[in-house]
Amino acid sequence: MLSLLIFFCSSIAPLLLCSSVVAAHIALSKGSFRLLKTSLSIIQHIKAWVMIDVFLVSIAISCFKLQDYSDIFVGPGLIGLVLLQVSTVLLVTRVSVRRYWEVFHAEENYQLTEKTLHCHHCHLSQPEGTECLRCQSPIHHRKPHAIQKTWAYLIAATIAIFPANIIPISILLTNGKRLEDTIFSGVASLVNSGMTGIAIIIFVASIVVPVAKIVGLSYLLLAIQFKRKIYHKHRMLIYFVIKWIGRWSMMDLFVISIMMTLVDRGQILDFTPGYGAVAFGIVVVLTMLAAESMDPRLIWDNYPEEFDKKESLNE
């Protein structure tokens, strides 16, 4: 399962994204509604799982961790990977699902006078209804059961985070000795080896980020359910930060997979992931699903107009 997750985030997701962008352009040129809708749906859901940049940073960290055990040389494949990373980042930042739908059928062509619903898929504002006028997807004022789904993912992630930090995440066999490391002990060993910078990166990505996501999303959900009427902009900022930092939790798993690939020399030196890595992978997936399932529009549902001036002063 762990290998499938890593393979999906580092290879399958970027391939699906690029293929879907090409398919979207073909759909626009041929006027194919079904192909356009399918490709844009894939783009919308897959963008968060494209993690080539995280994978590239993980390669650098793995090389630093292995420098005491072997000599590592940079091959031409790394140059290609860097170019792929740059191209993918540019693609992700430039691709806009809304722009594709606007090219296919602009919002102004509908000549709508009432705009009470906003489609979450094609971003068309339209009158009340059960189906989007442009992309024909089901539309709702808010995502159905968004709070319940987010709480379910968060509770499951909270449960999984304990074995992820207690059970060894990696096992290194060197000269007949078995060295097991949890996330905390791995960070400590990096500090003792003089790699303080890498230790800080691993500590933030593997410990601070997952905990911050769980705490942050819990705070947002509680604020929504208790109908807090101030600091809405602050909560939106928290939400966007949570969505952005979540992908970097995959760094430790990428490091483990890279080291497992590089270090495989039988009885002299061997590296394998522990069961803690599986639990940590579950935490990463669940927290990302929690962030995706939450509807940020819920934050603004109890925003009274008379608080506009007050909140601006608080900021």
UniProtKB/TrEMBL annotation:
Pfam families: PqiA. GO terms for cellular component: plasma membrane. InterPro entries: PqiA-like, PqiA-like_proteobact, PqiA-PqiB_transport. It is a multi-pass membrane protein. It is found in: Cell inner membrane. The chain crosses the membrane at residues 6-28, 48-67, 73-92, 151-174, 194-224, 236-262, 274-291. It comes from the Bacteria. Its main location: membrane. Keywords: Cell inner membrane, Cell membrane, Membrane, Transmembrane, Transmembrane helix. Belongs to the PqiA family. This is Paraquat-inducible protein A.
